[in-house]
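During the no-cost extension, the postdoctoral fellow (Dr. R.K.) reprocessed legacy sequence entries with the updated structure-token encoder. One reprocessed record is reproduced below for audit purposes.
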Amino acid sequence: MRALTRIRHYASAFRQAKRNRSDLPGWLLRRPLIGIAVAVYETMLIFSNRLDPKLKELAELKVAGLINCEFCLDIGSALGRSAGLTEQQIADLPRYRTSTAYSELERLVLTFAEAMTATPAIGLDEPRAALRAHLSKAQLAELAAAIAWENQRARINQGLGVRPTGMGEGGVCALPERPAQ
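Re-encoded structure tokens follow.
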């Protein structure tokens, strides 16, 4: 059921796209094997649903902000709202450590996403151990895969100049942020 709900959320977000709709498909059509690989991985992440989709969307949105991918922030804000993120949670991403908008688990997810996105990816032992108190190994594996994939997605979109489409318009949209020092 979660997978079908997520598919509906993706379809709804893409229907809201107002401009630059062909940026990403245009690039992926140039290398069909890469496009197929992207589609397969995206599909597998959607159907891997032991982890609450809200946590996945929260982590992915944090990564998008750290990498400064405007397309990812656009779609991620729309998908995050669909998954149940509040406007306060989306707006407070840069200051999640002090915001009252997040639960302890959500803060741990954001800390883990931040650590995995840092280059080099160090300091993962503590957040991973803390997450294990809340998540099964399968859920943690799913979270790590979603964070790693968002890093890939955001970086390829940045590299190719994929522009935002307006999917997140009409609500609070996450903003780019500077990585923690």
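The mean pLDDT is 90. The chain is about 65% helix and 0% strand. The remaining legacy entries will be reprocessed before the final report is submitted.
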